[in-house]
Amino acid sequence: MMRFTKMQSCGNDYVYITEFGNEPGRLAQLARFCSDRHRGIGSDGLIVICGSEKSDIRMRVFNPDGSEAEMCGNALRSAAALARMKGIICKDDITVETLGGKKSVRILSLDGGYCIAKSDLGVPEGFKAFEEPVSVRGRKFDISVLSLGNPHIAAFTSGIDRLNIKKYGPPLEKSGYFPNGANVHFYSVSPGGEIAARSWERGCGETLSCATGAAAAFAAARARGSCGGRAYVRHPGGTLLAESGGGRIFVTGETRLVFEGELLPEDIV
Fold it and tell me: What is the pTM of this model?
């Protein structure tokens, strides 16, 4: 038997384990099972929390298709919160090793399985705002590209709630701005500076929220002069607070423990 924990942050849900080996093929298979919402547990992917020689913990992120991603902002807060809940870490400032670099999380409040945490996602790299709109399947988008340890395209548009994200997400994901594809975030900004966003993630599809996506949309909106150094980013699954300081981007939001269970041996073969 293997224990697992299901956690969600603004509807972005993952299965977390802390006691598995490093065999990539088996982890990919387990990620596909855990993510299956009809024949498995149901999630946006699998998170493996490991020991680290560089940080307090190491976080590995596996998409529903079994591919390994560099980083996930919502999972970052959840992994730190879970490590704190389980007593793996006994402090509120936690460093996390990821394939996208070393990140840090501050636990602001913790009450049972509910946590509010603030993550430092670092300085955006390779930021570029395109001067001319990009046409995708007959619709034009003002796009920006950047990396926060994982690749992002932020596409400014109107009518977010009505947008056919399955039509425009895949071609932008594979548009070639990043060699291995990108996470795509469609966003708009209200007159008061609040950002509305929807996210299409590599290896996953549309998710209810994305914290690094919130940071990407925030960075793009700031470059457009549409918001200041602090903005709420509203996703279908909930709202995150994005802030800028010293060139770095910080994202604050909730994370909740949903349930715990055990995986049967036949699930992890």
Answer: 0.95
